[in-house]
Fold these 2 entries.
Entry 1:
Amino acid sequence: MEEMLVFLSGGTGLLLWAAGLPAVLLAVWAATGRERLAPFRVRMLICAALLYLSFVFFFLSFGLEEIEAVGSSARTAPRLWAAGLALFTADQLRRTFQGRAPRDPESGDIRRVLATAAVVAFSLWGMDIVGYYLSSAVMLLVLCVLLGERRPLVVLSLAGGWVLFSWAVFSRMLTLNLPEGLFF
């Protein structure tokens, strides 16, 4: 079992993971064709993709080396992200199956989706210049405004809370170095 997980976390295993996602999405697309689930098809496709991504993170963590001198395992961070992502996605699926989730919209706001993707890409690029903490805080501030949140206390507390959480979990608990830029 361990050998299979190590193989799947290697370079050739990545091709299998990449080929598996369309197969999973196609299966979910076919399964949601019934009348009861059809209004939630896009929501369920997104949930399936996120669950698949969380399983990929989990399985890829088996390919990371154990380094005892660091203080925490390199496998901890991807497994932590995978568990959180799977938990919240499973909750979203539960609400969808219970009928408490809103139906998929008839049409989407493509400009907002592209702007969100640009903000995230700019934030990833900006980590090399200003560092993780400042880059992620600015990204959250801009995304909150872009998505319609206008209360300054909510926007600032969300960005500040995320930076504090990131610092406490990754820097203090897991002793992992987050990307540092030229300034921080």
Entry 2:
Amino acid sequence: MSIKIDRDALLKPLVSVSGIVERRHTLPILSNLLLEAKQDKLSITATDLEMQISLSVEKIGDEELSTTISAKKLLDICRSLPESSEINLIPQEGRIQLKAGKSRFNLQTLPATDYPVMTSAPGSATTVVRIGQNKLKNLFKKVEFAMAQQDIRYYLNGLLFEINENKINLVGTDGHRLSFITTTLEESYEKQELILPRKTVVELCKLLGDDESELVIEIRAGQIKFNLGQIKLISKIIDGKFPDYSRVIPSSSLNSFTIDRKSILFSMQRVSILSYEKLRGIRLILNENNLKLISTNNEQEEAEEELEIDYVGDCLDMGFNVTYIIDVLNNIENEKITFNFTNASSSCLITIPDNDDYKYVVMPMRI
């Protein structure tokens, strides 16, 4: 008995699911993929116990299979095979043989019955939301970079996913900066607040398509499920209270200027070359119709660049982490952006002209 499948049809799904597989794990089976063949489909599942991705691909014939195999080894083998190769999977006792052309690979397996499959939480979904895949992908792109990484405040290592009537609000923060975006849905829903783990957001960004294909989101107690056609992702939700982001976003500002996004991005990238590597500080000095960017380092080196701007507000001398500003400039595509300040010691609010859907806040730093 053998399972036949086209190499090209298998490779892309393997890449899609292998991102969540931990190569070194206290449970060896979590380094494996669950392969289940029924009728004309081969389903592939990967999990790290917090999140699970499963999908199915077409195979040749109706032979059945149920086993687990090393994700890394199977992916490496498929990548190494010529395009359009036909792969034969031949299960044996505690092993599986993979044949393609004149190549033979004999791999160890672990029982499928031992694989910790995540199932949907019992009961019907409390909320089911439908949204275009490209729409959610673009929303994630504008906020996910602001999430914390390995912060002891575990609730910051994720993204706030908030549904409020016909709005979805996404918020990411690491305590030094905050990124907020909102969009309108076609239907209204009961209010929901949940925190998506960082790894879930990162993997979703890889899986979501660039077209308007429908994404169905099912929210259950302690769990969220994303249905992307053939691909399904189930994730646990971070149990915690996300900070009140509305208190962080300034409601008004006394001083602001609008500038070409690429112009200030390239200027900041140049000036940041001589910034202190650990602190990454940069000074923004605002005078009438002039913005001066200055960075220094512990070797007494200095970089300076001036930009002409349309500005008639207060004269301000402020310090910020240049990386935080470059991040937002790299992740939005609008030609123009607006910098808003209350005073020299206040946070910086970055917005898009004539668009209230996106807000980015950077806390100041002493330089």
